[in-house]
Design a protein that fits this description.
The complex is a heterodimer of chains A (250) and B (474).
Chain A: E1 10-13, H1 17-22, H2 24-36, E2 40-42, H3 52-57, H4 60-71, E3 80-82, H5 85-98, H6 105-113, E4 115-117, H7 118-125, E5 137-142, H8 145-149, H9 156-162, E6 167-169, H10 185-188, H11 190-207, E7 211-214, H12 217-229, E8 235-238, H13 239-248
Parallel strand pairs in A: 1-2, 1-3, 3-4, 5-6, 5-7, 7-8
Helix pairs in contact in A: 2-13, 5-6, 7-9, 11-12
Chain B: H1 8-16, H2 19-39, H3 43-62, H4 64-77, E1 80-85, H5 88-101, E2 106-109, H6 113-118, H7 120-126, E3 130-133, H8 136-144, H9 160-170, H10 180-197, E4 200-203, E5 207-209, E6 214-219, H11 223-229, E7 233-239, E8 243-244, H12 250-261, E9 269-273, E10 287-293, H13 297-302, H14 317-321, H15 325-328, H16 339-350, H17 352-355, H18 367-371, H19 378-390, H20 405-419, H21 421-434, H22 443-449, H23 462-468
Parallel strand pairs in B: 1-10, 2-3, 2-4, 4-7, 5-8, 7-10
Antiparallel strand pairs in B: 5-6, 6-9
Classes of the chains: A alpha/beta (250), B alpha/beta (474).
């Protein structure tokens, strides 16, 4: 980050549709982590999805319709925190393109500029200090492609994990390599996606980690699904939920 | 266009079922990625040289028509005959005319992806002209009767053992030895005789300098130099985007290209070709021809967003870093240009009817964008092509060819659900409560559950949890 913004007292939370349906506890953990730092967290109940599925499938008008339905939920200047690098990337990087030339372009650009990925916000804005209450455990970190390459989130989550005294972080050999989710890619090219997640699972196994922690639910659906189907010992977890459990000692 | 559109899904399934192939690619690409990373260990230097190379390409494209005219003028002054070809058929015809005029029987070729795009070898063979690829990888692929699987390392899909078997089968008196030095020496002996006997040498062009009329060709084996200096006639092929403005634009390109491609600081040979043999000179070809191919490039150029496709310097680094390419290899694409650059270039050249599936063979992970030495926004162009594929009447050939009423309805329904808070609440509630009852045999779930457990709906949404825990809504 170029500069450390002043600590806000109030933030918006954009939960994302995958969190909503599959990982609501992780979403709630993210809210509670922010609350534990003394922030007021606002969760606009009108929110749904950032529009990425249609955007990446070539249906931009449908993506625009959905993105537009989110725009008025975040009035003012408070930061918008998103527990997903991919959805945050869609909002921050692609909304300005999606709304280009539209009457509400200026509003979209204003909203996009306020978007933060959760771990990025915890590290750069809140400068959190975590105290580990959990049992010793070995974990590894799965970096989502969009967190890394659209949001520039590479070291932040690992820095948070390293704050935890009883957590041993063993990095993946191919941390930067895609897990093969890719939204509709996993359905359009199931065999290639399977080969990719197969390599990812092997890499995770190689670390001997009991848990693979990630900040993106698409990757988590893919990786945990493959770990379970392969009867592997490691389990996947969203970083918000992992951090919350560690600081609460369970 | 032939009616048989390549089937990437089927071809990639076959590739994935070949453990030897997967192992060859994984090993080779891992090696190339780490070699490249070692070349750019200094992030500051990487950003600086990358910005410079990108600016060279951008500047060249910004005045492309003018630079091409200047290139023709200066090449002509240097004694290089310039030919323009709108299509691959025209380019093949021009080459054949030259070959017939000089009564050529044997052609030796250095690596040229444009001639792969033209299927030139097949055309020459059909006309009774023997053509021999002289780049070792291309030679191997030609012997094997296949096509390059990588634009820089054409035979990267094969290991030493497989090449030893191939040579034993195809080369007279070859011993069965899995020894790279022996195999290289064997190929060298075969090729050396052909260089001396060839009537015409052919090559590609890495950069053509407008202000001097110079053709720059980089290579590692010296075969490029042989092809362009030993036979009496040299024919060079280039796509019209390969021009750069000035001589000083060449170093950033030829430094970044091998560093990105193979992790070498520079190639073994850097050829600067500035015309045929002059009076009193002892060597060099009598005639030098440059065939400049359009084949759809001027249409790509006409669209300001798609134009960035033409920045490419053909280093192949995007392939080395693509998680899809490294799993399935280059042949699965059944295209002259595989991998990320192929997925954006080939559909624009050949049309979205035949190649509309290519832009979807991508997870949009952006690994290619991160390492592209000339900063091509590959994934943004991929996204644009996905739009063009379902939108009739756009800027790309056969736009709208993949439009499907059923798919459009699905997305329209999805948008309606996600654009209305009430509809969204009802839908997510229903999915949360009932979704887990969906059978794994449903079309999309079936693909998913081949190697994964079924995603489990949580039962309560985050909306519910937040409301229950009193998280404020405004």
């Amino acid at each position: 980050m170029d500069h450390q913004p002043p600590k806000p007292t109030r933030v918006y939370y954009f939960g994302t549709c995958l969190v909503d349906l599959f990982f609501p506890d992780a979403g709630m953990a993210g809210i509670e982590l922010l609350q534990s730092q003394g922030l007021t967290v606002v969760f606009p109940q009108g929110q749904s999805c950032c529009g990425q599925p249609a955007y990446n499938s070539g249906y931009r008008a449908d993506a625009l319709k959905v993105a537009r339905a989110q725009l008025d939920l975040f009035p003012g200047d408070d930061p918008i925190v998103v527990p997903s690098g991919s959805c945050a990337g869609m909002m921050k990087k692609h909304w300005p393109d999606l709304f280009r030339g539209e009457p509400d372009e200026a509003k979209a650009v204003q909203v996009a500029a306020r978007v933060w990925e959760l771990t990025q916000f915890l590290v750069h804005v809140l400068d959190v200090r975590l105290t580990d209450q959990g049992e010793p455990v070995r974990v590894t970190w799965h970096a989502s492609c969009h967190a890394q390459r659209e949001m520039g989130v590479v070291e932040e989550p690992k820095a948070l994990l390293r704050q935890l005294a009883n957590v041993e972080l063993v990095e993946l050999k191919r941390e930067k390599e895609c897990c093969g989710f890719g939204g509709t890619f996993a359905i359009r090219h199931p065999e290639i996606s399977a080969a990719m997640v197969g390599d990812k699972v092997a890499d995770i196994e190689g670390t001997g980690a009991a848990r693979v922690v990630s900040g993106d639910c698409g990757c988590l659906l893919n990786i945990t699904g493959a770990l379970e189907a392969g009867a592997k010992a490691a389990r996947g977890q969203h970083i918000a939920q992992f951090l919350k459990e560690r600081i609460h000692g369970r | 266009m032939d009616g048989n559109a390549p089937d990437f899904a089927a071809a990639s399934r076959a590739a994935l079922a070949d453990p030897q192939l997967r192992g060859n690619f994984r090993r080779a690409m891992d090696g190339l990625m780490s070699k490249r990373a070692a070349q750019f260990a200094d992030a500051g230097e990487w950003h600086a040289v990358r910005a410079l190379a990108a600016s060279v390409r951008l500047r060249a494209l910004s005045k492309l028509p003018e630079l091409l005219e200047k290139l023709e003028e200066n090449c002509t002054r240097n004694g290089i005959t310039v030919h323009w070809a709108a299509t691959t058929e025209e380019a093949n015809g021009i080459a054949l005319d030259i070959l017939h005029r000089v009564d050529a029987r044997l052609v030796v070729k250095g690596k040229s992806m444009v001639t792969e795009e033209m299927h030139l070898n097949a055309v020459l063979e059909k006309n009774g002209i023997e053509v021999l690829e002289s780049d070792l990888g291309e030679y191997i692929v030609q012997l094997d009767g296949t096509m390059p699987s990588h634009i820089i390392m054409p035979a990267i899909h094969l290991n030493t053992k497989q090449i030893a078997h191939l040579f034993k089968r195809k080369i007279k008196d070859a011993e069965s030895r899995e020894d790279a030095a022996y195999l290289t020496d064997l190929a060298r002996r075969v090729l050396r005789a052909k260089f001396q006997a060839a009537d015409v040498g052919m090559s590609g062009v890495n950069a053509a300098v407008a202000e001097t009329g110079t053709l720059c060709l980089i290579e590692n084996e010296g075969n490029g130099r042989m092809c362009t200096t030993v036979p009496p006639v040299h024919i060079a092929f280039m796509g019209l985007e390969k021009v750069v403005e000035k001589l000083e634009d060449v170093p950033p390109v030829i430094s970044l290209l091998p560093r990105s491609a193979t992790g070498q600081p520079i190639t073994t040979y850097v050829n600067m070709i500035s015309g045929p043999r002059k009076d009193g000179e002892k060597d060099g070809p009598r005639e030098v021809h440059l065939i400049i191919l359009d084949n759809g490039r001027s249409s790509i150029y006409a669209d300001p967003e798609l134009r960035d496709t033409l920045r490419c310097i053909r280093c192949g680094a995007c392939m080395n870093h693509c998680p899809v390419y490294t799993k399935v290899g280059g042949h699965a694409y059944e295209a002259p240009y595989p991998g990320p650059i192929g997925k954006i270039l080939v559909p624009q050249i050949e049309g979205l009817d035949k190649r509309g599936a290519m832009p979807h063979a991508c997870t949009m992970c952006n690994a290619c964008v991160e390492i592209c030495p000339v900063k091509i926004p590959i994934v943004e162009i991929m996204g644009r092509l996905r739009v063009e594929a379902v939108k009739p009447g756009g800027a790309v050939k056969d736009g709208g060819a993949k439009a499907s009423r059923a798919e459009a309805m699905v997305w329209s329904g999805w948008a309606a659900m996600n654009a209305s808070p009430t509809a969204y609440r009802v839908a997510t509630l229903a999915m949360s409560k009932l979704g887990n009852a969906a059978p794994s045999s449903l079309p999309m779930l079936k693909e998913w559950t081949n190697v994964r457990t079924k995603p489990r709906f949580a039962g309560r949404t985050l909306h519910d949890l937040a409301r229950a825990k009193g998280v404020p809504d405004v």
